[in-house]
């Protein structure tokens, strides 16, 4: 799976006719027809693992990848199922429009007095009459007016693009109403800045990260969402779709090699734990998943969908991004530790890797919790206004759902550190023992230009084809 050797930097310097080039860390000394020495330094990624370990890793991941592909083929929905529009919320026809005129008028004259504010202050009489022109659809060019009250949060400006809801069954003159603002330009600009920043900093790897992001979005919109709407098991769909996203993102961003494969296995183990815990605690806490207007509308339009399964699927998919970050970082740390100390045992590597992982856990778990808290901030504000107790707030389904989502994802995140670190330490540790003396590699796995490593000699020292050919007279006397 990992086929490219580590890059060597710096030329090997030779002196004397009998000198031999050296690779790896350290200095190699050789004797031939005359005195000589050579040295070279190698930096960069750790070389490929042994052929045997590549076969073991492939035996695990190839069937898994085949099962994911088979699942995608068998469950591919071919688009979201159709339905009759209800005209409620997102399920309504829309058109594009533009604000062409704004005129200040009296709210009382327009019979549009705002409600009395909760603070009991005076009611403003300054309203606006906005003239909206339809700019798309069969009624392009048609105009209508809308009164903007002073207490409305949405204010208009002349020339601003708006989104219009179209109600074909409404009375004449009331087919259109403003429901939102067009935000295509600022969002496109922000996306462009993001892509530019990723490419400038990440270069080729940044480009591959953007490609992987596009693939992930495609799997989400073309497979996961339509398959759930079609009535397939949300958990099964999330597992297959999430696995496809994980395989594409990790291998495209980090390469098809043993290091990435170990990260994939660690991520799979953590996702399995998240699925088990999520299923158990969603059932135990009697969470229905139907806690918002959006889920209620989905259940109305597609009553065959298991909303509880959608909740569990959301937990699994939401944990993928953070898990990928943790597992890749831990595997990379163990690989670098092995590169720095080729003779380290797997226990030493595991202990050092866990010290790095504990720092990672402390920051990432807090990030995950704060992300969920930020998403639920308006809900928490409502409970604060109601002056409800902490226990009462936590016991409500709205908050309990977020608590389960946060804690289950965090447990899987924490578990991924020791699991992935142990897997990486075992792989690089076992790889050292699997390399024989005739393989032409040092203990760190670097190819030696002068032949196989000499038993009992440090990494990077070669025998130049004869025993005891690695130094001065003391080495030759020992060889004799």
TrEMBL record:
Keywords: Membrane, Transmembrane, Transmembrane helix. Pfam families: YibE_F (PF07907). Residues 1-10, 447-461 have a biased composition (Low complexity). Residues 25-35, 462-473 have a biased composition (Gly residues). Signal peptide: none annotated. The keyword Transport does not apply. Residues 1-49, 436-480 are annotated as: Disordered. The chain crosses the membrane at residues 56-76, 184-202, 209-229, 235-253, 262-285, 305-323, 364-386, 406-428. It comes from the Bacteria. This is Uncharacterized membrane protein.
């Amino acid at each position: 799976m990992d086929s490219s050797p580590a890059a060597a930097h710096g030329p090997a310097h030779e002196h004397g006719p009998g000198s031999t080039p050296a690779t790896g860390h350290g200095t190699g000394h050789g004797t031939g027809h005359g005195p000589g020495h050579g040295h070279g330094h190698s930096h960069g990624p750790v070389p490929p693992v042994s052929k045997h370990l590549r076969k073991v890793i492939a035996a695990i991941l190839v069937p898994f990848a085949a099962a994911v592909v088979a699942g995608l083929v068998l469950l591919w929905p071919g688009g979201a199922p159709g339905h009759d529009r209800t005209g409620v919320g997102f399920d309504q026809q829309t058109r594009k429009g533009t604000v062409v005129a704004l005129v200040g008028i009296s709210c009382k004259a327009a019979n549009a007095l705002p409600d009395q504010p909760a603070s009991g202050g005076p009611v403003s009489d300054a309203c606006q009459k906005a003239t909206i022109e339809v700019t798309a659809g069969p009624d392009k060019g048609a105009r209508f007016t809308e009164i903007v009250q002073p207490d409305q949060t949405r204010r208009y400006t002349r020339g601003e693009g708006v989104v219009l809801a179209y109600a074909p069954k409404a009375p004449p003159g009331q087919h259109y109403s403003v429901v939102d603002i067009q935000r295509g330009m600022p969002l496109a600009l922000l996306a462009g800045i993001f892509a530019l920043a990723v490419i400038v900093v990440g270069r080729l790897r940044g480009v591959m990260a953007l490609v992987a992001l596009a693939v992930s979005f495609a799997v989400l919109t073309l497979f996961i969402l339509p398959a759930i709407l079609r009535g397939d098991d949300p958990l099964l769909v999330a597992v297959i779709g999430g696995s496809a996203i994980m395989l594409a993102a990790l291998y495209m961003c980090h390469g098809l090699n043993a290091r990435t494969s170990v990260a994939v296995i660690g991520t799979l183990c953590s996702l399995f734990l998240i699925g088990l815990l999520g299923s158990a605690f969603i059932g135990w806490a009697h969470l229905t998943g139907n806690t918002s207007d959006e889920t209620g509308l989905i259940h109305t339009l597609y009553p065959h969908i298991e909303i509880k399964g959608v909740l569990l699927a959301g937990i699994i998919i939401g944990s993928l991004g953070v898990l990928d970050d943790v597992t890749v970082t831990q595997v990379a740390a163990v690989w670098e530790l092995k590169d720095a100390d080729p003779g380290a045992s797997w226990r030493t590597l595991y202990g050092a890797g866990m010290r790095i992982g504990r720092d990672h856990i402390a920051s990432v778990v807090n990030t995950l919790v704060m992300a969920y808290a930020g998403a639920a901030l308006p809900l928490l504000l409502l409970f604060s206004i109601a002056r409800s107790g902490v226990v009462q707030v936590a016991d409500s389904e709205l908050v309990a759902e977020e608590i389960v989502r946060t804690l289950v994802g965090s447990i899987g995140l924490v578990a991924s550190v020791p699991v992935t670190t142990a897997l990486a330490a075992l792989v690089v540790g076992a790889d050292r023992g699997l390399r024989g003396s005739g393989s032409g590699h040092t203990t760190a796995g670097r190819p030696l230009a002068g032949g196989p490593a000499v038993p009992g000699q440090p990494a990077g020292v070669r025998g130049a084809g004869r025993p005891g050919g690695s130094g001065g007279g003391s080495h030759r006397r020992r060889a004799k």
